[in-house]
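hey so i finally got around to running the thing on that chain from the lab meeting. sorry it took forever, my laptop kept dying and i had to restart like 3 times. anyway pasting the input first so we r on the same page abt which one it is
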Amino acid sequence: MELALTDIQIVPVKPRDGLLAFVSFVVDGSFYVGDVALYSRLDGSGIRLVYPMRTLTNGAKVNVFHPIRNDVAEEIERQVNQAYEDLMNKAADERKKRQESHE
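ok and heres what got predicted. didnt touch it at all, straight out
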């Protein structure tokens, strides 16, 4: 599946109940996707994405948007996971450099 995600923005949050960050990105240079929650998988095998929902006045919840094909959902998840891992590795490297400079 060829799907280009660009402008991936990840905003980490203090982890709580598996929530790690919020993500936004552009799909194929044509469609902006925002307010996607990034959670750790319950079995610890990676991440999962939770797309925004709205609650109607009657209490019903409806999806705002989400991938409808599994291959698209998996490719988005793969690319976001890679960007998240890169961000976490960069942060760890910066922490290590700061610690070494204080020793």
